[in-house]
Structures are given as structure tokens and as C-alpha cells.
Amino acid sequence: MTGPYMREQEPPMPEGDTPPQSDTAASVPDSGSGGRGGGTARRMRSALAAQEAGLAGVVLVVVLFLTWRSPYFLTTGNLVVVGRLAALSLIIAVGMTFVILAAGIDLSVGSTVALTSIITGEAMVTLGLNPVLAVVLALAGGVAVGLVNGLIVASTAIPSFVVTLGMLAAARGLALGITKGQTLSGLPAGFLVLGQGSIAGVPIPVWIAVLAALVAHVVLTRTRFGRNVYFIGSNEQAAVLSGIRVFRTKVAIFAIAGGLAGLEGVIETARLSVGQPSAGNGYELVAIGAVVIGGTSLFGGEGSILGTVLGTTLLALIQNGLILLGISAYWQQVFSGVIIVAAVALNMWRQQRSRGGT
Q: Is this prediction's pTM over 0.90?
């Protein structure tokens, strides 16, 4: 999990300032600076390291427990399954991290997966387009959904929860309307490699997810845009007064989330060999759960990609472990819900404790 950073941060200098060196707080002072600021930065980084190390410890405990309880857990086949499951969830969770860091929420990512899955299938099966062009169109479709969400959220006072809830229904309805509820099969074999193939024994979706996480980490920790995301989530009014282009940043954030959901839709289509309007059902809850379990604050301004990676991995391990232990799929949903609620409660308790100690 990420460290308990203060939500009320000093406004950034609009030009010429140094990008943050931590992906959990955009305005953490340099550790080498003297005085109170440097001490605060060191405490924050120590808390960050402790919490993420703690979550990594939980992941390790789950791995050891499943190794003890099931002889099938460490088999190559099962590890590949866990890797694919975690990778597909991580791609969406990375985009959700951007949105939640900016104090928003995106409930439409699951429906975006379905819509881009249908776009992918229609482009190749119905229109006979080249797979590369079909993928580009699908990604553009995902970005377009995110742009619509971002434009509405940034230009109106409508909460992102409401906007994306409406888009959840609209995108799913489009996917169902285009196909009349039918799946699309007959995809080219070369395209299916994207979701079913592997490189050096590692599934291709895992490589894609790792690349997406690394790029997102660099963006959040080494760019002005990443710093602005944290400032907007921490104090949007202060961000506006500081000269940050909040409108443009918000639109870009939702476009990133939509584009990554579109990428997940493409991979999901290749993995299942069909385009289906039911794809992505409930994925938004998994993504939100992974991000929150990873320590990102639902109130914005605090979080990291590393935390999201650990949260996603933990959820994937728990889901796989429940299957290996023979627990009914119905009860799996109960466990997932309890874990998400517990993670949110722990997150809020941690923030209250952090504020009380500052």
C-alpha cells in the first residue's frame, strides 16, 4: 500500500519546478533539504515503504499458504493462469489509478471493454479489416469513451460517479445493440496470439501489463502531468489557482482510463477468440478494489502504481486460491466484496491516523 500523505499540499509552482520523485505525493520536498520539510518527506517515504512492504508481505503469506494447501498452485499451468488473470486486471487498474488519484471514479471501464471487444470483432469479421487496423480502431473507441467521460466531468458539476454510471449503461447498450446480443467468432489466428501466445514462456498479456505499469509509473513520478494529477486530487481549487490546466488534465486522465480499458478489450477478445457484448462485466469493481487495496485514496491525491500492482496481484491470488480450494463461485464473490470493503475501511483509518499525527 502507499504511504499516508497529507491531502492538503502546498500549491505547485506553475513553471520550472522539479518533477516529484515519488509517485504518492506530488509535492514531497527533496529528502536532502533541511528543516521540517525534509523531515516530513523522510517520514512520508518511510511510511510508503513500510506500507508497500506490508502489502508485499501479505502477498507472500498468501503464496505460502496456497503452496501448502494445494499441490497444484505452483504448477506451471496454474501460474500461467494467475499471470494472465492478474495482467488483465492490472491493465484496467492502472487506468483507474489515474482517475482515483484525481479524486474521480470510472464505472464505465467494464462496458468499455465490451464495446471495444465488439469493435474489434466487427472490424475483422464483418468488415474484413487488417487486425492491426482493427486494434487501432478499438483503442480509438476506448479513448473516445474516456474523452466523453472526461469532457462531461471537467466541464460540468456532475460527479464522475454519475457520469460514468451513465456511460456504463450507454457503452454496454451500444455493444448489445450492434450485435443484437450475439457473439462474433471467426477471428484471424494471427490476432489470437495477442491474448493466447507467450514470449520466453511468459504470456503476452503479462508483458503488456508490465509495460503499461512501468509507463504509468514514469508518467506519475517523472512528468509534470503526473504531478498535476496528484495536485488535482489533493486540492483541485488550489490547483486551479496555481495555474494548472485542470480541465485538460481531467480529460486526459479519463482518456487514459478509456484507452487502457480498450486495450484490455482487445486482449480479452484475443484470449477468448470471440468478440462478445457481455465482456468486462464487473471489471470496474475489480479495478477499483485493486487500486484501493493497493493504498490509493478514494479521496484522491495519494497512491502509487506499485501499490496497484500489489493489490491486483493479491486479488488474483485470492481468486485463484478460492478455486483451488474448491470454494463455490458464489462464495468467491462474497469474499471479494468483504476484502474490498475491508480495504477501504483500512485506507480511511490510515488517513485519519495520519492526519492526527501531523
A: no
